[in-house]
Amino acid sequence: MRLILTSLFFICLFGCNKSQTEDVINFDEEASQESGGTLTNAMIGEPNNLIAMIAGDGASSAIAGQIFNSLLKYDENLEFEGDLAKSWEVSEDYKTIKFNLKTQKKWSDDQPITCKDVLFTWKAVTHPDTRTPYGSDYQLVSSAECINDYQFIAKYNEPYAPALETWASLHILPEHLLKDEDINNTFFSLNPVGSNYFALDSWVTGQQLKLKANPNAIHGKPLIENKVSRIIPDLSSQFMELIAGNIDLMSINPIQYSRVFPNRSELNNKINLYKEMGNGYTYFGFNLNKKPFDDINIRKAISYAIDRQEIIDGVLLGLGEEITSPYKPGTYWENKNIKKLSFNPQKAKELLEKSGYHLNNNIYEKDGIPLSFEILTNQNKQREMTAVLIQRRLQDIGIDVSIRVIEWASFVNRFIKTGEFQAVVLGWSLSLDPDQYSIWHSSQQGPGQFNFIGYSNKTVDDLLEKGRRELNKEKRKAIYDEFSSILYEDQPIVYLYAGYGLSAIHKKIKGVKKLSPPAGIYHNDYEWFVPTKFRRNEMSL
Amino acid sequence: MLKYLLKRILWMIPMLIGISLISFFIMHLAPGDITSNESAFNPKASEESRQKLREMYNLDKPILVQYGLWLKRIAKLDFGNSFASHQRPVLWQEKDKNGNIKPGLIQKALPITLLINLLTIFLIFSISIVLGTIAAIRKNKIPDRLITLFVFVGFAIPGFWLALLLMYSLGVSNQILPISGLHSIGYEQMSPITQFIDMLKHLILPVFISCLSGLAGISLYVRNGMIEILNQDFIKTARAKGLYEKKVIFVHTLKNALLPLITILGLSIPGLIGGSVIAESIFAIPGMGKLFYDAVLMRDFPVVMGILTIGSILTLLGNLIADLAYAWADPRIRRGLSK
Q1: Residue A266 CB neighbours (<10 A)
Q2: Do B102 and A450 touch (CB under 8 A)?
Q3: Residue A212 class from Cβ within 10 Å (0-12 exposed, 13-18 middle, 19+ buried)?
Q4: Do B330 and B259 touch, CB atoms closer than 8 A?
Q5: Span A6-23, pLDDT tens digits
Q6: How many whole angstroms from its chain centre is CA B109?
Q7: Does residue B76 belong to the interface with chain A, where contact is any CB pair within 8 Å?
Q8: What ipTM did this prediction achieve?
């Protein structure tokens, strides 16, 4: 809100104020690739710990991801490719994975990278004393061993389809620096040694973190020489730093994307905007253990009564998409054959009446009990606005809805964990692996587990178990297609929208792909560069 | 006098225990703990591993036991380590076996906040005394009205809003001042003088914004105190004696009117270590306000308790210092004390 107000105010107050008479530089000029230069960006929070398995925050993983490699990674089309591994083989029974590591690769301190490091990392993440929330995936590995310096074998008791994905998200750590350290509390977490494109150069607590190109980078040195991440908690301040040219890129919000930029031609001369599918979706979920949400007709009626396009237009200014399965639109796992439920209040009323409800004073009721409930959401502007639009649409057809907005920790502990809620507006991330076991399997309903809405469907349980054991891609696709159509038929949640990720990047940064690949705009940032003529005074760097 | 001082200091111990007990319980009344925030909705993080974390932090123990453990540590002046995954010490840096230094959270944040707050308080008091004096002399005339209007506008204007406007006009449209942060990029390579100027430039906007809201209170104190004293008999006597008006105002009136300010100054000592969350977020200043706010949201209990304890010690000390300073400045009170 603060941002809307101020952005509007700026347009009014300074809109006609000619900004200073700087030399107009044509940033659109093409330039040939060259290395060197600095990229400056901003983060809202400071990384806690650059060992990603210990840290839980986004800032940490963003920085750690530029310093460390995993065994595998995703290529630009979201297929697996080798990172530290040169190749990998999955056995016939799906229970053994053998990784052949790249040889002759070195850590940034010139020590060789070998299988010992991989084995050490696996032991660390599964060790009972390690303070990691991510151990459970790796504990499924029954034994792991090194055949020689460059061959790593992981054996599973049961086939585990998401296994490759888990090896793509585990940063391999250097054994020689950490074997005598307490991984939970080591100075290494503030001063890491890695193998990826960048290495930590300096870190001024609370202010900024500087990375420099790693000469030993396993995929070769990146073009950009330095990356500075400034810590600026306030997004409006970040935006001002962006338009003043002090930071080179940031994620922006729909208002900045479609209201501020189109009205400010001088900004468009120096900043490019990019739009791509985001990484999460927002849904309207029911507590299926409570009446009346155990009735599928009620859930469907509510789904028909909500105008999803209206929410996308109102909340995201049109910068989002409707989804019908919990997978990223446009990716392999999306089920494109599901027919969307469209906005249809008449049909909603029919369904309510079929369940025995009738109108009384414009509110539906059954056995004298009016159809009314409370929507719960956390302090998130977009979710709050979404809840308001849903409230209005449901009121239109005769359902009495109230809204309650709660601080995050209280929301999780007081309501979600205890099951003391009726309906929620919340979000899930759109995962790259199709496995959704922890969210939809009926066994995952305990306190603190993720099927807190209480969904249980025998067929879905079977499919989710089958999907975890199947490693053949086509067969897996068939399983998850069936899963997502049953889920859509059941409507345990109403999918609302998946918002676009919006980025603003200064035009002096060259090499950014105009059409972002499925893996996202930042996927090829090692190929980005700043032509010498556009570099700001970097003498001091 | 010495007996009085000793009594006051001894009284602080039970008070501190009471304050910490109440803060500890209130903090634990809020639902959730550190484990529910860092990975509450990450499907890759299992509930068992969160339970494991809770045991490691003793969060599964009864609250009285947790308080006992905390008190035991604090008695040894050990403020503990943060629950966040960096596990930095709350108060002061610690060295690991290889001689690497992990800086303390309060140690890093406090100097910045102190610097800003000292500058702010100094400016607020000096500007307020000038404004209040002018307003009192020209009571109910145009200067008085203008000053009152100005200080109240400053008080009422939302700080974040004005901050953003100033950042835009002085940092973006006309690039005179830096927008946010404490240092420019490349600060380490500057000469000491340029470093000082660079830092000063970064502090202008935050200090200005923090000052603005404080002017109203203090300048009105000065104004009203002055007016009250100007009406007293001894001022009439002074004027009747034929003293210069300057001497009447600055020696006889102002000196007396400033006495109550000592109390206010004492009471602002605990405020010295508390930063403003909004200003610190907008200007990207890593100070105490942001540290405390984030710790509360994360339920990072050692950090919250550390800041609260230091804050309460300073509050109690501030009260004591204010009382002593008052006695030192005003003979009437001094005589009352020794009785």
Answers
A1: 12
A2: no
A3: middle
A4: yes
A5: 554 454 444 444 444 445
A6: 12
A7: no
A8: 0.81
